[in-house]
Amino acid sequence: MAAEAGLLDRLARRVDGYRFTLRLGEKGRVASVGDGIAWVYGLPSAAAEEILRFEDGSRGMVFELQAERLGVILLDPEANVASGSLVSHTGERLEIGVGDGLLGRVVDPLGKPLDGLPPPETDGFSSLEGASPPIVARDFVNRPLYTGAKVVDTLIPIGRGQRQLIIGDLGTGKTSLALDSVVAQAGQGVKCVYVMIGQKRSEAALVIDLLRRHGALAYSTVVVGEATATPGMKYLAPFAGCAIAEGWMRRGEDTLVIYDDLTTHARAYRELSLLMHRPPGREAYPGDIFYLHARLLERSTRLSQDHGGGSLTALPLVETEEGEIAAYIPTNLISITDGQIYLDRRLFAAGILPAVDVPLSVSRIGGKAQHPRIKEEAGQMKLDYLQFLELEVFTRFGTKLEAGTEVKIRRGRLLREILKQERLNPLAASFQLAWMIAFNAGLLDGFEPQTLPDALQKIQDGLARDPLVLDAARDEWLALLNNWLAA
């Protein structure tokens, strides 16, 4: 009764305040429709990215402003828009619901459910094209984000708030590494958003099933712009995922966003731009393709404590062809991000998984976020590994080597064997430190490469019985490691 009385009171005030006045409005008409876009005449005061309403109730977003007409992305695939349909202003921008109600859900770039469940309950709305945080609102990246992969967490570390590119040819394990990173966030207090752009429905279902079986869907949201979607929906997908993660970041939480992948996104944007008659540039991409990805990835950061202290870490994926990292889109993204993890097809074919090419991989700011103990043990390891890769070339010609060189090659081969890892098997930071101390102290030198998995399993079992914190003294670690390996 109280609610009804309040509603009647508001209606009465609205009626009392109503005045007959002259109201000016604009109406446009659809000139043509096709390929998920509509050309609209009229509406001279329309703004870029404004939402328009068609007479059948469906919506569109202004994408192209021309002197006489507007290019509009249709947002409702079931829309009944035809030539001659009326169009009107809304004055709104495209937004998506955010909040914990999206955890465990699969949605499209507009926030509509794709998992057969009711629409998710949201705490508010976030703009798909929100501005990136200003410099004064940002803080240094100083906390690690563990991916669970030995080669990444030790030699190419990632910090919370970083933008780290995963790059490689088709079928080299980019998606597997990204999924490992999501699974590794269990119990880490990091909420994840996995964005799939232009992937087939079967591939999307497989990813969702893997996340569900490993318990990762409980703290994740999946945004799908599937292969059969219009170019406009594929274009909006990564911005939707970023907006969802920003909602948590503004609340002071840590988030991780996977963009799988931005090569497909760039192609969708190229197709959309050509349909809108934008002039093509290099490889027919529009001239603002760099700005497109820059404004997306610049929203990834770590906020200062005065602004909540949350973080948004981005792991964009990009595909190369025949290992050509100097192509247009890969080089654009390399220059935008804070480093790259390069996956090599030859390493993949040789069974070195994950197939990370250490010489071509770099993390420019991740070392600042690495735990001091792990950083101390990994300090010389990457340099020694790079030297080993150069020295190993000489062994192919049967060259007689000095004793010291043979020792370096043997230890390098042991390290390469240690860095191998099965997919969907993320490892804790304490284990990463344990094997590095054992390797640096020479405790693993007596093992043959084929027996190393047993030694590493002994270390893992020992940690399960006698857990140690990362800050424990090195002598304490060495004492336990000797006992575990001698067991």
List keywords for this structure.
487 residues, alpha/beta, Elongation Factor Tu (Ef-tu), domain 3, Rossmann fold, Lysin, eight-stranded mixed β-sheet, six-stranded antiparallel β-barrel, 16 strands, elongated, ATP binding, nucleotide-binding
Summarize the structure.
By secondary structure, the protein is of the alpha/beta class.
Description:
- The strands form three sheets. Strands 8-12-11-13-14-10-15-16 form an eight-stranded mixed sheet, with helices on both faces. A six-stranded antiparallel barrel has the order 1-2-5-4-3-6. The protein has a two-stranded antiparallel sheet with strand order 7-9.
- It is of the alpha/beta class and 487 residues long.
- The chain is built from 16 helices and 16 strands.
- The chain starts with a helix and ends with a helix.
- It has helices at residues 2-17, 150-155, 174-183, 201-213, 231-249, 262-275, 289-297, 328-336, 345-349, 366-369, 372-378, 381-395, 403-418, 429-440, 452-465, 474-486; strands at 27-34, 37-41, 50-54, 59-65, 69-74, 86-93, 95-98, 106-107, 124-127, 165-169, 190-197, 220-225, 254-260, 311-320, 339-343, 362-363.
- 37% of the residues lie in helices and 19% in strands.
- It folds into three domains: 25-93, Elongation Factor Tu (Ef-tu), domain 3 (Beta Barrel), CATH 2.40.30; 96-371, P-loop containing nucleotide triphosphate hydrolases (Rossmann fold, 3-Layer(aba) Sandwich); 379-486, ATP synthase alpha/beta chain, C-terminal domain (Lysin, Up-down Bundle).
- Strand 1 (27-34) and strand 2 (37-41) form a beta hairpin.
- It is elongated, with a radius of gyration of 27 Å.
